[in-house]
Design a protein that fits this description.
Layout lengths: L5 H14 L4 H14 L2 H14 L4 H13 L3 H14 L4 H14 L2 H12 L6 H15 L1 H14 L4 H13 L3 H13 L7 H17 L3 H14 L4 H13 L3 H14 L4 H13 L3 H14 L4 H22 L1
Length: 324
């Protein structure tokens, strides 16, 4: 099992449970093996037997609670955590699982309280700090989440993950200037600690925010960076097209939208925006064709239908004039 040779380990452990049916250890080891394979039913079956034989073994309850959460049964996970806390009411791993169970149940203030209790005896990690900020948001709202993230950023000013999370929350709370500053600092302090996906996300966000604030050159710079990190970043191409449309460079905008269509031909927004660019360039016939494609992909989208209706009428007028 230590060498991750599960194909050999599982049959050996199955045999051990037959040879030692009244000892918890082989049942628990078999549960761990099935945990590595992701077979929840087998985990539950074996660990339930282990806990019958050793009711004071906290690891059994942890495995049960984790498995219950994976199958979206937080109520059952909470009960397992309660049983574990009867053995040790300060175990941080149990308290974290209990907090997650309460959060999934919808008891957000109680979940936050339990999570903070767990943090008192847990080593600090970025993942736990970010999770705490999410718990804070669900319990007390986005302003409280932003305050919690600002405290963390003050404590760890060079942590790009915290800055990235803060910028996302600030965007959602319409604090555009602060969001730009946080995202820029996240990129400046990343030093290779942000993966390509996160780099694309931050550059695309900055491109979008720069466009909204009229900083179009900076928007193009950031969106081009996003595409450099991921040449199939559809959102970056769509936003880049919007920037060029704002600059009335309709042919370049259309190139960006068509690139998005080539990457994701089922994206109605790409066709819609391409149609808008063509309409601005006064190519009404091609614009109508693009909007027809958008309408086929999103038949319930009122904005697309409205624009399409206007173009159909416009083309009818133009066609009549041409005939005359």
């Amino acid at each position: 099992l230590q060498n991750n040779n599960l194909e050999q380990a599982i049959p050996v452990l199955e045999e051990a449970t037959h040879l030692l049916p009244n000892e918890a250890s082989p049942w628990l080891s078999l549960s761990r093996a099935y945990q590595a394979t992701g077979e929840i039913t087998q985990i539950l079956h074996n660990v339930e037997r282990a806990v019958e034989l050793d009711p004071s073994n906290i690891e059994c309850y942890l495995l049960l609670a984790e498995s219950a959460l994976k199958i979206n049964n937080p109520e059952k996970a909470f009960k397992y955590c309660q049983a574990a806390l009867e053995v040790d009411d300060t175990d941080p791993q149990v308290l974290l699982l209990q907090a997650r169970s309460l959060d999934q149940i919808g008891q957000h203030p109680e979940a936050l309280k339990t999570f903070e209790q767990a943090l008192q005896n847990s080593p600090k990690s970025v993942d736990l700090m970010l999770e705490h900020a999410q718990f804070t948001r669900r319990a007390a709202g986005i302003d409280a989440q932003i305050d919690a993230l600002k405290v963390l950023v003050d404590e760890f000013p060079e942590n790009p993950q915290l800055l990235s999370e803060l910028s996302d929350a600030l965007v959602e709370n319409n604090q555009t200037d602060s969001a730009i500053m946080a995202a820029q600092k996240a990129l400046q302090t990343s030093h290779g600690n942000l993966d390509a996906t996160e780099q694309v996300h931050l550059h695309t966000m900055l491109g979008r925010l720069m466009r909204r604030t009229g900083q179009l050159d900076q928007a193009i710079h950031n969106l081009s960076k996003a595409i450099q990190y991921n040449p199939e970043a559809v959102d970056a191409y769509l936003e880049l097209g919007r920037v060029y449309q704002d600059r009335r460079q309709y042919s370049i905008a259309l190139d960006a939208f068509q690139q998005a269509i080539a990457i994701d031909p089922a994206n109605p927004q790409a066709y819609y925006l391409a149609g808008q660019a063509l309409k601005s360039a006064k190519d009404y016939s091609a614009a109508e064709e693009m909007l027809q494609n958008a309408a086929k992909l999103a038949p319930d989208d009122l904005a697309i239908r409205r624009q399409l209706g206007g173009l159909v009428a416009l083309n009818l007028v133009h066609n009549r004039k041409n005939i005359s």
